[in-house]
Amino acid sequence: RISVSVMAAASSDSNYVQGEDGNTYIPASRRPDGSWRKPIKVKDGFVPQEEVPVYETKYKQWQKSAPSMPVGLNITVEKKKSKPKPQPTEGTGGAALSKAAKKNEKRKQKRQEKSSQAPPPPPGSSMKQIADSLAKSKIS
Question: Can you give the pTM of this predicted structure?
Answer without folding.
Answer: 0.29
